[in-house]
Amino acid sequence: MIRLTNIEKSYRHGPTQTFVLRRVSVDIASGDFVSIMGPSGAGKSTLLHILGMHDSAWTGEYWLHEQPIHALSQKDRLKLQKQHIGFVFQSYHLLDNLTVAENIDLPLSYRDVKRSERQALVADILDRFNIVGKKDLYPNQLSGGQQQLVAIARAVVASPSIILADEPTGNLHSDQGREIMELFARLNAGGTTIVQVTHSEVNAGYGRRVIQLKDGWVVDGV
After folding, report:
1. What angle separates helix 115-128 from helix 100-109, to the nearest 10 degrees?
2. CATH no. for 2-220
3. Which of 44, 64, 112, 186 could bridge across to 197 with cysteines, CB 3.0–4.6 Å?
4. Could you tell me how far CA 137 lies from the centroid of its own chain?
5. Is the Cβ–Cβ distance between 32 and 191 less than 8 Å?
6. Is the CB of residue 58 less than 8 Å from the CB of residue 46?
7. What is the rounded CA–CA span in Å between residue 179 and residue 116?
8. Within 13 Å of residue 103, how many CA atoms lie on the same side as its CB?
9. How high is the pLDDT of residue 92?
């Protein structure tokens, strides 16, 4: 599903070039559940945002469903991103002026989906995530755990083949974090590929394998 070959990311400061990622080569199969781990500054979130196509300033080869992301235009990359990827941010990234239902509907509104179909999909997700009673509330009326549930619901409503999650439980207490990880485990059991960045060994234990980064290099788990 995903194949990365010699991915590198760097910044220039005058004559100095600072590398964030060095020669990262990784394969992730369909249905896998991968945790990216490593110390702060290792390049974990940078790698995740490259996978999510939020960052285009890198070199190397990135293949997604046999499509050469490295060779595509920004327009074609965006099309594949919308089709295949759901992204869960650590800080939720919900829109404060939209209700829960409207936030979840947002990814569908970017697609050519009829309004009646969108309403049915949103209603189904609200039911699956047990947040029907929250559908007319705004993010500032929700707890952190509830906001993260809505963020995950928004990420999966369009049935992406991959969910990318950046420290998805980082702002939650332990019970909320466990609920989120159990939800990811159920989604993965249903066939969704999941790649998460985490500092937590407990969270990594929900997955099938770990990729360790250090100073931008993959040091274990290829």
Report:
1. 130
2. 3.40.50.300
3. 44
4. 24
5. no
6. no
7. 31
8. 28
9. 86
Distance CA 67, CA 3 (A): 10
Burial of 90 (0-12, 13-18, 19+ CB in 10 A): middle
User: Could you tell me the two tokens for 172?
Assistant: 């939650």
Nearest Cα neighbor of 92 from 41, 136, 131, 143 is 143
pLDDT at 48: 97
Give bridge partners of residue 197 from the DSSP assignment. 36, 166
- Identify which of 49, 89, 82 has the alpha carbon closest to the alpha carbon of residue 158: 82
Nearest one of 93, 90, 89, 67 to 78, comparing CA atoms: 67
**Domain ranges (residues) in the chain:** 2-220
Q: Are 59 and 8 in contact (CB under 8 A)?
A: yes
Positions of the chain with pLDDT under 70: 221-222
HSE-up of residue 12 (Cα within 13 Å, Cβ side): 4
Q: How far apart, in whole angstroms, are the C-alpha atoms of residue 53 and residue 85?
A: 9
User: What token pair was written down for 212?
Assistant: 């360790």
